[in-house]
């Protein structure tokens, strides 16, 4: 981090749909050095509007919000206001929250158990061009990169409009994993796995896991064991 970034007072907008949480974050930030809160939003739509009005340096963005969630708000802010950085501040640290937020343009990602010092570091890190990630998020990213290195290459194009994650779930079903085992492997909830499976069944017309296994082999997503 440069000395200039450390000296600069960061103008921050807070976006969180829970009033008590939002007001608590604003109060905390008011006590922290190098932070000036210039606005607070109750959902993503309001956050996008506030950024256009007050041009903050950083938005502290919750993810699960009505009307416009944090991922979509981040995407819109980064596209229209590239001078404003986004640091996610959320309860959720699962892959289905983390990676879409980073892909949308968030430069930082903290969970709501972060203390004031962590928030200040993250805000000033993104202002200086670095990533503002909590240690647990950094570990998760490294784990995911390691898993990606060890995982067989994904097929060039998923069949029948399946998303990459739906295809991944299908392959794990073909490998014989249960919903609970898939959830642990992908670091998501069992409910999220069930949603991916239901979407996959709808797109492919499959009725059960046995058909899904035959489908995966038929499409060349997995290969029969040698021998």
Task: Please describe what this structure looks like.
β4 (85-90), α5 (95-104) and β5 (108-111) form a beta-alpha-beta unit. A 6-stranded parallel β-sheet has the order 2-1-3-4-5-6, sandwiched between helices. It is 53% helix and 13% strand. The chain starts with a helix and ends in a 9-residue tail after the last helix. It has helices at residues 3-7, 19-30, 44-54, 70-80, 95-104, 116-127, 135-150, 164-174, 179-186, 190-204, 209-218, and strands at 10-15, 35-41, 58-61, 85-90, 108-111, 132-133. α4 (70-80) packs parallel to α5. The chain has 11 helices and 6 strands. The chain is α/β, with parallel strands linked by helices and 227 residues long.
Give the % helix.
40-55%
Strand percentage lies at 5-15%
Write down how many β-strands occur, each being a DSSP E stretch of 2 or more residues. 6
How are the strands of the biggest sheet laid out side by side? 2-1-3-4-5-6
Total helical segments: 11
Backbone shape? elongated
Report the order of strands and helices: HEHEHEHEHEHEHHHHH
What's the N-to-C terminus distance?
56 Å
User: How confident overall, as mean pLDDT?
Assistant: 85
User: Helix/strand/pairing class, anyone?
Assistant: alpha/beta
What kind of sheet is the major sheet? 6 strands, parallel
Low-confidence stretches: 1-6
Radius of gyration: 20 Å
């Amino acid at each position: 981090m440069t000395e200039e970034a450390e000296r600069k007072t960061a103008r921050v907008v807070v976006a969180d749909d829970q009033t008590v949480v939002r007001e608590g974050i604003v109060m905390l930030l008011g006590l922290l050095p190098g932070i000036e809160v210039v606005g607070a939003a109750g959902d993503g739509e309001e956050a996008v509007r506030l950024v256009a009005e007050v041009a903050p340096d950083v938005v502290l963005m919750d993810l699960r919000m009505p009307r416009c969630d944090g991922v979509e708000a981040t995407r819109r802010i980064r596209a229209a206001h590239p001078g404003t950085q986004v640091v996610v501040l959320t309860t959720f640290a699962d892959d289905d929250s983390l990676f879409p937020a980073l892909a949308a343009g968030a430069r930082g990602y903290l969970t709501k158990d972060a203390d004031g010092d962590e928030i200040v570091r993250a805000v000033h890190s993104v202002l200086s061009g670095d990533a503002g990630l909590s240690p647990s998020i950094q570990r998760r990213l490294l784990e995911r990169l390691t898993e990606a290195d060890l995982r067989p290459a994904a097929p060039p194009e998923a069949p029948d409009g399946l998303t990459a994650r739906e295809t991944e779930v299908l392959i794990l079903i073909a490998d014989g994993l249960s919903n609970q085992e898939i959830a642990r492997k992908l670091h998501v909830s069992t409910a999220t796995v069930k949603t991916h499976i239901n979407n996959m069944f709808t797109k492919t017309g499959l009725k059960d896991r046995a058909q899904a296994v035959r489908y995966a082999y038929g499409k060349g997503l997995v290969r029969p064991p040698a021998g």
